[in-house]
Amino acid sequence: MNEAAWRTLLDLRPDSTPAGGLQRELRSRLVTAIRRGDLATGMRLPASRKLAAWLDISRNTVTLAYNTLVQDGLLEARHGSGVYVAQSPPVRAAVDRPQPAQSWVRRPAIMPSLMRQVNKPRDWQSYRYPFISGQVDPELFPVNGWRESSRAAWSMAETSIWSQDVIDADDDALVEAVRLHVLAERGIRAGRDEVLITLGAQQALSLLAQLYLTGGRVAGIEDPGYTDVRNMAAQFASELAPLPVDGQGAIPDAALLRCDIAFLTPGQHCPTNAVMPLDRRRRFLEQAALSGTVLVEDSYDWDHRSEDAPPPLKTLDAVGQVVHVGSFSKSLAPGIRGGFMVAAPDIIAELRALRRMSIRHPPLSDQRILASFLSLGHHDAHLRRIRPILAERAELIRHELPLAMPDCTAVHGPGSHSFWIALPDGQDSQRLLPLAQAEGVLIEPGGVFFADPARGARYFRLGYAAIRTERIVSGIAALARAVNLLRGA
């Protein structure tokens, strides 16, 4: 193979690869070429100096990649002769098979792909102004703290603990860290048998929907409210009872009395950012006690609450009717998929058994890293660092919005990560979406949060955790241009 062939085969792009990852990327490309059969057993690879020159990378990078693959047995170093492809696993030829006329024999019982969802582009980071919720600015991630926690979790002693099969148990260290470093700070006392670790709050909510609604029961859903909860409940419930929302969050009206379970976001209502006051929280508890309704408290944004925020529902729970759901997605990173539930021991026991049927438990290695991150104080330090940054971003938006879009109204709850914005009557945020994207702006149209999308047509959510501070002013200006285009359409 000549220089051009090697360049094409490996397709290494030094300019777009971080310096520290170039050697790993080269190894990955070589392994892939071997596995595909592009590099056959016994084939001689170019000398490290020559391949480095061809790929425009350092010779040391090639040498390290070769040496590592020799140690792994994929390459073979022959003294005085060079580096060769070692005996590789055989690659089976693909077998052509007839394509069925339909993709399944029997139609699925449900069609989740047809349910309304909050859709965000997977390449959201390529947009200059990503005003979306549920994502974080990668530059704010605590790399050093996470790296130290990862090293601690991957020591030989730790590996011998988390690599074992624990059936349906959680990592004791993480359960203890959640109790001491997270729940205690929220004022929630919980025993070890009252905590369940989950793959984010999403899995916790899904397990609760299955546990309490299977067989056809009534679910109370905030309207507007979290779209995914509505979809989860719709799979199992016989009825979805809308819980109306005002400027103080969900309202404990007569609909609650018919519900077997009700899903609430009292700390920061999703999506309006309303904070439920203490007296209303007490009314929810009193009314739910009369009907035996289980209240699910989704505390997705708790870590960024204001100092005078009312206490969680769970701290007021005297009879065990509240299930408290938490997540590290908004405070740390959604990709970590770290979450937890707090409930009475008998409820946790059923949820644990239900979780076992699908995943047994979240990966113990990930749990141990998160446990170290909490116990070493990195999470607290991270929150202290990012809170003023997010507050600055919120203040910039609060200042710019009325100047750029004076005919729009915006609600921003204390500690929330977004603004809930209303366009003038008659304007549709779904039509605004492509106009904003053309300006490099991502927003979240509001109709998807309502049981009747038409009621939310004029609203949209503007998040600011993912956008860089220095881009906010120009981003609001770009959004205003899109709004003006919508107005003139």
UniProtKB/TrEMBL annotation:
Keywords of the record, alphabetical order, are:
DNA-binding, Pyridoxal phosphate, Transcription, Transcription regulation
Concerning PROSITE patterns, the annotation shows: HTH_GNTR (PS50949)
Give the SUPFAM superfamilies listed for this entry.
PLP-dependent transferases, Winged helix' DNA-binding domain
Q: What is a single Pfam family found in this protein's UniProt entry?
A: Aminotran_1_2
Per its record, what are the GO molecular function terms? DNA binding; DNA-binding transcription factor activity; pyridoxal phosphate binding
Tree of life domain = Bacteria
Where's the HTH gntR-type domain? Answer: 20-88
Q: Does the keyword Transcription apply?
A: yes
Read off the InterPro entries from this record.
Answer: Aminotransferase_I/II_large, HTH_trans_reg/aminotransferase, PyrdxlP-dep_Trfase, PyrdxlP-dep_Trfase_major, Tscrpt_reg_HTH_GntR, WH-like_DNA-bd_sf, WH_DNA-bd_sf
Q: Name the SMART domains on file.
A: HTH_GNTR
Annotated family: In the C-terminal section; belongs to the class-I pyridoxal-phosphate-dependent aminotransferase family.
Q: Kindly give the PANTHER family that the UniProt entry links to this protein.
A: HTH-TYPE TRANSCRIPTIONAL REGULATORY PROTEIN GABR
According to UniProt, the name of this protein is: GntR family transcriptional regulator
Provide the taxonomic classification.
Answer: Bacteria, Pseudomonadati, Pseudomonadota, Alphaproteobacteria, Rhodobacterales
